[in-house]
Amino acid sequence: METKSENACFGGVQGVYSHKSQVCGGAEMTFAVFLPAEARDGPVPVLWFLSGLTCTHENAMTKAGAQAWAADQGIALVFPDTSPRGEGVADHADFDMGQGAGFYVNATQSPWSPHFRMWDYIAEELPALVFDKFALDAGRQAISGHSMGGHGALTLAMGLPGRFRSVSAFSPICNPMQSDWGRKQFTGYLGSDETAWEAHDASLLMARTGFDGPVLTDTGTQDQFYELLRPEALASAVATRRQEATLRLQPGYDHSYFFVATFMPEHIEFHAEALYA
Amino acid sequence: METKSENACFGGVQGVYSHKSQVCGGAEMTFAVFLPAEARDGPVPVLWFLSGLTCTHENAMTKAGAQAWAADQGIALVFPDTSPRGEGVADHADFDMGQGAGFYVNATQSPWSPHFRMWDYIAEELPALVFDKFALDAGRQAISGHSMGGHGALTLAMGLPGRFRSVSAFSPICNPMQSDWGRKQFTGYLGSDETAWEAHDASLLMARTGFDGPVLTDTGTQDQFYELLRPEALASAVATRRQEATLRLQPGYDHSYFFVATFMPEHIEFHAEALYA
Q: What pLDDT, in 10s, does the model give residues B13-65?
């Protein structure tokens, strides 16, 4: 692992690191970790934040304002990249496919399968690395994300029972099997057999298994991608299951980081309650 | 004035606007305004935030986390650009001269003088525009900035007595007449007669006139540009004058927006005390 930068931030350290990912076919992956001051004294709880289409590790790290609230709560933050990148890694002309658009699945189809294994990267390889290198408490993990990253947070939380104590999402893609943000990517990455897609649809997972902990989502009523997100599918599944959840629609807000930053304090407070319970 | 974007943000609106600047020789200028929810009911106090070298209106708007705290206090924020830009506007190969590096002076020298009039832009033209277009209280203004923008905040605050109730700065260029961040630019923009520079050196202004209100500065002890900032010159002038001031050195912090974001809550609280006094 290589240290790209470390900056003092809210009494702790905001770092950026890179490493060669085995599960992503040897691609060089970059990620960011915020460690609060409390990490100097021992392992702290950790909140994973998965980002959306076109983002790298950097967008949420610089624009979401999360460090202020994480520092207040003594919680670490991990910001992974959204796909493998670089020469030799497949890409696509559209912003919603290929580099910056890994969709948190393990691709099985050409030309993606050698590198695009973001599920295993987030579920296995990156945790092994960060729990080895940083003072993070693997027994106290939570997960959140924005847009495609909200999809990732919800599907990883439900797909890895017992891993995360709480899950939240900002304007998540809730029902990708019924959305143009999903069908195109699942076809490309996973092939046309839709049974292979089912582990990656939050609304379907909610209907089938739910989540053993609290769920919080926020979506803006003026979100320019509202129809692609299909929050109604997740809301229906949550209600049918009687899942412990708070699903909020926020009047006037859109899909931007201004929206994410606005509700970040409440999301971190929500996770802190679960992580310190 | 043209609206480039408006996003709901912490209960208010983060907008980006552009206009043709007369004082900057007809250059199209972009600026950002955050209006807290309270602005719907009438004029609110305003904090100007001037940015540093290479920045546009956007850097502080997206990275400083200021809206969270301004919303708490019911204070508006204005983020101007740091220079005129565009075709026909002079530029320089170095990042610290020309576009993105206006230094908050009125250039008198070729090729800069037709457009680089940032003092008049911040002191006169942009205030006239924003007080006309937005619910801002011209009787309750404060000013802050980062690096070159900290220099701008301090020199404008002292150069316009009675305008601002309080002034703060993050890692300001404190003594540009004795720094490579200053002598080069003042020579280029203002010519070699150093008497023309004196209105633009915060330490010299502090020694001569001071500021009729409270002053707050923060500088990181690990600032990579520490020698260029010369905080010791301002500190000496403040002490000699017995100026009401809090000058802080923050251990371990550098010049980045992670540093700015960390201390933004205290700067906005500082200004709120003056604006609501």
A: 999 999 999 999 999 999 999 999 999 999 999 999 999 999 999 999 999 99
The token duo for B252 is: 């371990």
- Using left for φ > 0, alpha for ψ between -120 and 50, and beta otherwise, residue A10 falls in left
3 state SS for A29-57: EEEEEEECHHHHHCCEEEEEEECCCCCCC
- Interface ipTM above 0.90: no
pTM as predicted: 0.93
Query: Do the Cβ atoms of A179 and A229 come closer than 8 Å?
Result: yes
Work out whether strand B245-250 and strand B215-220 pair parallel, antiparallel, or are unpaired.
parallel
CATH of domain A2-275: 3.40.50.1820
Residue A255 annotated in active site: yes
Ordered by start, the domain boundaries in chain B are 2-275
Q: Nearest CA of chain A to the CA of B259: how many Å?
A: 6
Dihedral sign of CA atoms A50, A54, A57, A60 in order: negative
Chain A and chain B share a number of CB contacts under 8 A equal to 69
Q: In angstroms, what separates the C-alpha of B67 from chain A's closest C-alpha?
A: 9
